[in-house]
Amino acid sequence: MKAARGTMMNDFKDIISLAKKGALSRRDFGKLFAAVGVVMSTSPRGAVAADQPLFFTWATMDMPEFFGPYVAAHGTPPNFAVFGDQDEALLKVKNGFKADVVYPQSYTIKRWYDSGVLEPIDTNLISNWNDIFPNFREMPGVTIDGNVTCVPADWGLSSIAVRTDLVPEAADPANDSWALLWDSNYSGKLAALDSMADAVGAAALYKGVNAYNMSAADLETVRAALDEQRALLRFYSNDPTTLQQALTSGEIVAANTWNDTYVALKGQGIPIRYMRPKEGTMAWVGVLSIVKGTPHRELAHELIDAYLSPEARALGMTQFGYGSATKGGFEQVDDATLANLDIPRDPSALLSSTVLQGPMKDQDDIQKMFESVKQGI
User: Are residues 227 and 365 in the same domain?
Assistant: First the structure.
């Protein structure tokens, strides 16, 4: 049995090696996984594989390919369910949705913890725990009240993806600024992320305001900026595919996006830049947590450990452009690929120059404000 699992793991590593070279599509993944005896399922709990944990994750991140060691051990990936918004995900879990492992971002983890839906994580069951860069292991929210509440897995940036052929001035890094998303010359050709953390954070940076500790006057300033921007936007969206298609077609010329949009369009040969705005670039950290009451506690830890495997973290970089929170992930990716992704081998310098997204003071009120802006109220 051990020999069979070892063979399957070697087959899996070969598949991932092809993926990191850009040689496989999602359909190719499925065919090759089937060829080595792996059943790929994205069914919700209750449909199939009731003995497997459910991984509640972002849309587009429901990929069995991220769980090689788990698949090799069990012959099947976990079940998946997806969300597009973290508030939606938390509310769903609070209302009884039976997830086992969730994948929010670090700035929301205190809300998850305070809601009483998280179970402490036993890092002794996470073999890759010490492979996580210390600055991620020690970041706020990872340990609360002496309990490890989440495991950092990856990180990314929130900035502006811009078509340099349609916005010629954007070809010069000296012009990198959030002001582009308020430029009336491109009215109707701009888009923003449908996310309070990103949209409000961008408006705050543009206006020189600390988004995470706003006074009443600061909030009015940011509200006015968002109202001004709304009149210029083609749309808000938290769907990467929508943003990528609109930028590709030229329906929009610039948008607040995460790294994945930039990487996807660059890979298609689209003339695109990912700005480093002079006012600051936002950064986020993706974390994994275990839902309280899971009947699959050991499997949930195994799932997290697999997600931290070097091959999985390297795949996250090459397929989406998201940095690895582990050293092993970086060791799997060559310098030329990292340079093409615009990810430094030592991420500490880049991350120290960004604004790490965090919880906002009076966050519920700010969320209501953002919703009213979108609705034009």
Answer: yes
Q: Residue 264: give the domain boundaries.
A: 157-281+355-374
Nearest to 119 by CA among 375, 349, 290: 290
User: Which residues lie closer than 8 Å to 145 by C-beta, 6 or more apart?
Assistant: none
CATH number for the domain spanning 166: value is 3.40.190.10
Residue 97 structure tokens: 């949705």
pLDDT at 14: 52
DSSP string, 151-171: EEEEEEEEEEEEETTTSGGGG
Tally the domains of the chain. Answer: 2
Structure confidence at residue 38 (pLDDT): 38
For the packed helices 363-374 and 216-230, what is the interaxial angle rounded to 10 degrees?
Answer: 20
Cα–Cα distances in angstroms (integers) from residue 125 to residues 117, 150, 252, 254, 298, in the given order: 20, 13, 46, 44, 8
CA distances from 347 to 39, 104, 258, 274 (A): 36, 21, 17, 17
Residue 170 and residue 47: Cα distance in Å, rounded?
49
- Both 237 and 364 in a single domain? yes
Please, what are the averages of pLDDT over each run of 10 residues along the chain (377 residues)? 41 48 40 40 48 93 94 96 91 97 95 96 98 94 96 97 98 98 99 96 98 96 98 94 96 96 94 97 97 97 98 95 96 95 89 91 93 90
Do 244 and 368 lie in one domain? The reply is yes
